[in-house]
Amino acid sequence: MGALTLFTYFRSSAAYRVRIALELKGLAYDAIPVHLLRDGGEHHRAPYTQIHPLELVPALQDDALVLTQSLAILEYLEELQPTPPLLPDTRAGRARVRSIALTIACDIHPLNNLRVLQYLQRDLGIDELQRNAWYQRWLRDGLTALERMLSTPARSDLYCHGDTPTLADCCLIPQVFNALRFHAPLEEYPTVMAVYQRCQVLGAFQRAAPEAQPDAA
Question: What pTM, to 2 d.p., does this model score?
Answer without folding.
Answer: 0.94
